[in-house]
Amino acid sequence: MRYKKKVIVSDIFTTPTARAERLHRVRNLANLTRKEMCENSSLNICTYKGWEVGGYGGLPVDGAERVTKRVAEEGVVCTVEWLLYEIGQGPYIIPDFKKLKQDHSKKTTTVTISEEKGKILQEILLFRKNFPEAIDYQIKDDGVAPIYNQNDFVAGMKYFGGTIKTIVNQYCIVQTLDGKTLVRLLKEGTSPNKFLLLCTNPQTSVANPALYDVEVVSAAPILRCYRQSKPEE
Length: 233
What we know:
The protein is built from 7 helices and 11 strands. By secondary structure, it is α+β, with helices and mostly antiparallel strands. It folds into 2 domains: 16-93, 434 Repressor (Amino-terminal Domain), CATH 1.10.260; 97-228, Umud Fragment, subunit A, CATH 2.10.109.10. The longest helix is centred in the N-terminal third of the chain and has 14 residues, at 16-29. The two termini are 35 Å apart.
């Protein structure tokens, strides 16, 4: 495999050595050996070893793209920008990544609607009628795909104040103090009454996939997901 798009060294963060250190850190987060990193992927192990010692001009753009896709399979979120330039959110591990995929369907009813959007809205209105404290939301990003996808309609029951702590480690519709509404995995923060909001899609396009110590007004574990079926080809 031939790799292209070499990185131009412009500062201390873009040197081959700096890229090698970040690459090694990401592999360790994924708990992979060099051989495992290259298995079932388009990475060449000899070339990869060179990148981890700063050889061959250092990790190139194409290589970084392959690395981020490989570690995503192990539940590690890492952007190409961070790996090459140390720009933006650093890498992190999605807690209980494999278990989340297995367990989410046990807590959520997913309704696939084959008709027009109006049918989905009728379902949501019925949910609102039956549950006065309900909240519904159409997902705007791919942060928690494929568990909940962009444009899915989700609904749940709001928790407020101190009761929010009782629903951590669940996918929630979260309303933050600064007015945002997001669907994220809700985790406890490092400060009292603040929370960590995580994207669990390792290949998310969200610029900040981990939001730390967020003040939350309400959080609703997702009880219903309304998903529009794809039209038949």
